[in-house]
Design goal:
Elements (H helix, E strand, L loop, with lengths): L1 H7 L4 E5 L6 H4 L29 E2 L8 E2 L9 E2 L23 H5 L9 H15 L24 H13 L4 E2 L33 H11 L3 E5 L1 E8 L5 E8 L4 E6 L3 E3 L3 H10 L24 E8 L19 E3 L14 E7 L22 H11 L3 E8 L8 E9 L5 E6 L4 H20 L3 E2 L48 E3 L14 H20 L4
Helix pairs in contact: 1-6, 1-10, 4-10
The structure holds flavin-adenine dinucleotide and iron/sulfur cluster (SF4).
């Protein structure tokens, strides 16, 4: 987004990308059958989410380790390709609501943002118009409506979920996803192949190479350097950033690019790593870190899943349930935390039904009544049960805590000698209680649908099935914004308090997590920051 806005405003931009070039329009495995691969599409080391998945990277990258403090658990998904994780993300594109920017005022925990919903709302509107998103106008107070294309109709199992939610008093509305259900800004509408995670050959969903980097290249003002692993931000005698030192991964050589303005957008934790590694006599704790806050307040979304078998959906009439990648419905947070034993809410993502078969479904046929066996009987069972499942994924808000942060590991370096991150992680009772509520709700939903849950209720000792920190891949907050330079890294324009020509345009500036996925807010903030840079340059202030 920063490259898009800045080049269109007339700036010359150099984009350093650690991975290679990528454009889904050329490289996506859309419309490839699982049986066209010897692995039936199963994972490879570079594509842990399946061979046809659109993201090169994963939990482990050869030669680029990270470490986790003893006794803690944390997982870090990194992409190494142009456009990063936007090539395969779920494209659930939710605005934060007014309360999400003033969480401390609401419940006394964490901190308020230095901006309000009203400050960011015009940028959400413009991201909606630029990128395209479907949804429905609902008027829900803390789940603001956007400028929506029409949503696709619910699938059969989604209709069943909707009916059940209505009976249980759970809000259930059309999904809000950045997929084009109509032609938009020269891009064609979706043809409902359901393979968004592979990237879209028709450019009908949002990934940054197709929607932002392509148009930025067309300005002629964007220089793209791929295979360029940024190592540190360099600083001059005046204390301003002078550019970025990077490794040319092809030759292994150290290189440097000079710049008047530096914008970090390497994903939240990687940007924090770059700042912490940018040490100098003037900035011995790392750059923009006089507060000591770089790396602190790390959060991820809470998550847990429950799936079940719904006999009512067995032996269905074969029908076409194709649709967009992701659910056509979702449940925004619908309860009042004042009446619950945990703060902050969650939303629910729904899955199941007749998606195109891959290498197995819903954890295996043996989980169904009398499931298993050989030959004709087994085939009949697959036909009978296929599509008769539903699953719920809770995605909730974590409250930032002092024990969850990343720092530079004093001993370990990557293959280029760059010190790596060490993660420290703790969930608190707030998150455990919230996840317990998710489990109970999902089990109640499946029971109300007349179904059978596949797995027993997880115990308190197992954290009620809470996903490992980082596993939901929404890491945020490690270069947080704020009005006070002693307690925050960036000001309300995502500009470093300590270095006025240095900005951060990823999830690092977030002050709280919200019960929404973060990327629409990353895009809106990045657009806002980039326009601020343009204004400041025009005014001669930076
Ligand atoms: C499977 C999956 C599903 C998701 N679903 C959703 C969803 O439905 N909704 C939602 O809101 N969010 C979702 N997310 C999260 C979303 O993908 C991220 O919030 C978003 O991509 C973050 O954007 P970013 O630019 O900060 O980081 P990234 O997308 O990770 O991009 C970082 C870029 O920086 C490059 N880079 C990193 N380090 C360096 C370096 N040292 N030097 C040079 N370049 C570097 C990387 O190669 C990459 O191109 C999902 C993520 C995953 C993995
Ligand atoms: S479902 Fe639509 S947007 Fe997604 S990959 Fe297929 S055509 Fe593209």
């Amino acid at each position: 987004m920063a490259a898009y806005v800045l080049t269109r405003a007339g700036a010359k931009v150099v984009l350093l990308e650690a991975g290679g070039r990528w454009d889904s329009r050329t490289y996506s495995a859309m419309l490839t059958w699982p049986y066209q691969s010897p692995r039936r599409g199963a994972p490879t080391s570079e594509r842990p989410f399946g061979e046809f998945d659109g993201c090169i990277g994963g939990w482990e990258i050869a030669g680029e380790p990270y470490t986790v403090a003893e006794g803690d658990r944390f997982s870090w998904w990194r992409a190494r390709m142009l456009g990063g994780r936007t090539n395969h993300w779920g494209r659930i594109s939710l605005r934060f609501g007014p309360d999400d920017f003033r969480a401390r005022t609401v419940d006394g925990l964490g901190d308020d943002w230095p901006i309000t919903y009203d400050d960011i709302q015009p940028f959400y509107d413009r991201v909606d118009r630029l990128v395209g998103i479907f949804g429905s106008v609902e008027g829900l107070r803390n789940h603001p409506d956007g400028i929506f294309l029409p949503p696709p109709r619910p699938r059969c199992y989604e209709l069943l979920v909707k009916q059940t939610c209505d009976r249980l008093g759970i809000t259930c509305i059309p999904g809000r996803i950045s997929v084009l259900t109509r032609p938009h800004n020269g891009r064609p509408g979706c043809h409902y192949c359901g393979q968004c995670n592979r990237g879209c050959r028709t450019n009908s969903n949002f990934s940054s190479p197709g929607v932002l980097i392509g148009p930025a290249m067309e300005t002629g003002r964007l220089t793209l350097l791929t295979g360029a692993m940024a190592r540190e931000v360099t600083v001059g005698g005046t204390g301003l950033a002078t550019g970025v030192a990077y490794i040319d991964k092809t030759t292994g050589q150290d290189r440097h690019v000079r710049a008047r303005i530096v914008v970090l957008a390497a994903s939240a934790c990687e940007s924090a790593r770059l700042l912490l590694n940018s040490k100098s006599s003037r900035f011995p704790q790392g750059l923009a870190n006089s507060s000591g806050v770089v790396g602190r307040y790390l959060t991820d979304t809470t998550g847990t899943d429950v799936a079940g078998f719904i006999p009512k959906m067995m032996d269905h009439v074969p029908h076409n349930e194709d649709g967009t990648g992701g659910g056509h419905l979702y449940m925004p947070w619908w309860l009042d935390n004042k009446k619950l034993d945990f703060p902050r809410g969650y939303h629910v993502e729904v899955w199941g039904g007749l998606y195109p078969p891959s290498y197995g479904f819903m954890g295996g046929i043996h989980r169904y009544p009398e499931g298993g066996g050989y030959g004709k009987g087994l085939k009949e069972q697959y036909r009978r049960y296929y599509g008769a499942t539903v699953g719920f994924s809770g995605r909730g808000e974590m409250v930032p805590n002092a024990d969850s942060f990343c720092e530079i590991d004093p001993k370990v370096v990557d293959r280029w000698g760059i010190p790596v991150l060490r993660f420290n992680w703790k969930w608190s009772d707030y998150e455990y209680k919230q996840v317990k509520h998710m489990q109970e709700t999902f089990r109640a939903l499946i029971a109300e649908m007349g179904g059978q849950v596949f797995s027993p209720m997880p115990s308190a000792e197992s954290g009620y099935g809470i996903a490992t920190g980082g596993a939901i891949i929404h890491e945020l907050g490690v270069t947080r914004m704020g009005n006070n330079p002693k307690t925050s890294v960036l000001n309300k324009n995502c500009q470093a308090h300590d270095v006025k020509n240095l900005f951060v345009a990823d999830g690092g500036p977030f002050v709280s997590q919200a019960d929404k996925n973060p990327t629409w807010t990353i895009l809106a903030l990045s657009m806002r920051t980039s326009e601020y840079i343009v204004e400041q340059r025009r005014a001669g202030a930076i």
